[in-house]
Amino acid sequence: LLDVHLMLLHDEALVSATKVWIHERHYNAEWALSAQLEVLARQFDEMEDAYLRERKADVEQVVERLLRELRSSSLVAEGAAAAGSARNAHNPNNAHHAARDFAGEDPLVLVASDVAPADMMQFKRSVFTGFVTDVGGKTSHTAIVARSLDIPAVVGAREASRLIRQDDWLVIDGDAGVVLVNPSPIVLEEYRFRQRQSELERARLNRLRHTPAVTLDGHAVELLANIELPGDGPGALEAGAVGVGLFRSEFLFMGRAGHLPDEEEQYLAYKSAIDGMQGLPVTIRTVDIGADKPLDSSQHGSAAARDESHLNPALGLRAIRWSLADPAMFLSQLRAILRAAAHGQVNLLIPMLAHGHEIRQTLALLDQARTELDEATIPYGPLKLGAMIEVPAAALTLDVFLKYFDFLSIGTNDLIQYTLAIDRADESVAHLYDPLHPAVLRLVAGTIAECLRRGKGVSVCGEMAGDTAFTRLLLGLGLRSFSMHPAQILAVKQEVLRSDAARLAPWAQGVLAAEEPGVAIVL
Ligand code: PEP
Ligand code: MG
After folding, report:
1. C-alpha 219 to ligand 1 mean position (Å)
2. What is the pTM (predicted TM-score) of this model?
3. Alpha-carbon dihedral angle through residues 512, 515, 519, 523, given to the nearest 10 degrees
């Protein structure tokens, strides 16, 4: 048996053809081997002779062993993030037959078991025009980043990476959450038509870029951008954002193999985001690492990561808990943000606070950061202080929060996850993820109402803010500040322009009182 395996290792059908994938399509070694295995497996499946057909298992074993070696070698480990996603990567999208190489003109679709948020960021510079993953929920961070890239995506497609093969044609219908494999010409034509329609719709919406977001009855509404990287500012301005409502600073910390950015690097990054927004306000959220946002993608979803971070990472050491557990790291971030605040209007936003003592500890560290800068005679600027409301405990103790903070920002992605006890990244409970659950709505409505009563700023920066299905409801509840991915701003603006806030208010109260708000909202 070992002799057979050794022979297979030298077989041209395996070796030369794998090299062709590498040379011509620029696949990495693991991906090239997997691609060639698929080709050989198909050939074996078509063999008439049962004995020969079964030899497929030998080839599979050899390739499996090779892949294991390649993955464990340190040389490859550095590229493992890309390899992990790319290995399963398949091919073409809506209309085009992909395949040649990454530099080719045909759009490519990535099909993978999972993609870590940090890897997803890499695709900003890549040629992928869409992606499909087996796991993940609509508000998992991988999906959020895909939304920010404004590319069609379907997450939680279970068996996709196993069932879809290299060079299949794919239609990704992100709106319906559907992937069609090798669609018939009629279906393809239908989707080409829809694609043209949505391009026309985009062009039409684009005309609203410079129109102020004001309701029919004259209420000004602030539409802000959620960004992940400092360089995202110009894109946000282009989309008509009037500021950044959420800069997810954790993306600066990811994929760095343990070498976190120091104060200077962070200061320059924040300054560049502020400069990019040309005088408009920028809300920088302190690092929100943990749960489905590991520091390094090699830990993403791995057994090691689960072992290390307990069984429920979403309930573990994440966000402000992680920051308070490492005061030196947190202080360097706070100093960097304070220094950057000398260059523009900066709001500081703290994620996932639940306890009064966490608030007081955070504020004490902020004071310490100021003192350290004073002692070193380093200039810094004023900050408005905000807390995210994303844990029910916070939404139920607003008086404590409003005592310390200038504004609140409702993180509905987490608030829904923690209120309904479902992991936002787990596709098997995605059907229970309901922004219109009465409990969620009461927490959101209560937070908005209390802030309005106390004259404090309040916004929503979870995905709910960028979903036009909820715009009227949030307006009716009194919300006047929405933060979302730039790609969603114009569609939300259109909803605002068509809304009469005074008439929406009583209707929203009705939705709030309904046993099934999901039904009430459509009526
Ligand atoms: C949220 O929880 O709604 C939010 C905006 O933060 P994140 O999605 O980064 O957890
Ligand atoms: Mg959150």
Report:
1. 26
2. 0.81
3. -60
